[in-house]
Amino acid sequence: MQEILNATEVRRDWGRFIDSVVHGKPGIIKRNRDYILSLSIPQAKVLLQNIDFKAYFIQEEDGTITAGLEDIDLLVNQEDEQAARVALAKELIDYADDYFNNFQLYFQSPNRRSHFPHVLAVLLQNSVSGVAELIHA
Questions:
Q1: Among 8, 17, 21, 48, which lies 20 to 30 A Cα-Cα from 58?
Q2: 4-40: CATH homologous superfamily?
Q3: Could you tell me the residue ranges of all domains in the chain?
Q4: Does residue 93 sit in helix, strand or coil?
Q5: What is the DSSP secondary structure assignment for residue 77, as one 8-state letter?
Q6: Residues 6 or more apart from 106 whose CB is under 8 A from it?
Q7: Residues 5, 18 contacting (CB under 8 angstroms)
Q8: Cβ within 8 Å of residue 104, ≥6 positions away
């Protein structure tokens, strides 16, 4: 296993630790029996690059499209598939924000724990269109 750094040592030279993670490699910190994995944003994006969302689209009798996600219970209804994809992306952003703001509740829920990597993938996007690109039919 990679070198594990003691929290006291990291605290003494926090700037160097941050630089080593951002410009080098991930770091692991140990404090008592607790361990923390530190990643830069680009490293996290690579780790999550294969995360996507499987969507389904249903043509309604009135001509609108209802869209949902297979593993996360989100539904939208819009005038066409592209608008539905964007609406799903906005709903995903809201869900990811809620998940992160209530992290212990969601992460401890057996039916939502597996959403964590998906939530991180959404939170690491820079725009609604970036989130929409994660949605595939």
A1: 48
A2: YefM-like domain (3.40.1620.10)
A3: 4-40, 48-136
A4: helix
A5: E
A6: 98, 99, 112, 113, 115, 116, 119
A7: no
A8: none
pLDDT digits (tens, 9 = 90+) for 80-105: 999 999 999 999 999 999 999 999 99
Length of the chain, in residues: 137
Question: Any idea what DSSP says for residue 115?
Answer: G
pLDDT at residue number 49: 95
Q: Could you give the CA distance from residue 130 to residue 96 in angstroms, rounded to a whole number?
A: 14
Q: 48-136 has which CATH code?
A: 3.30.160.620
Strands 65-69 and 75-78: antiparallel
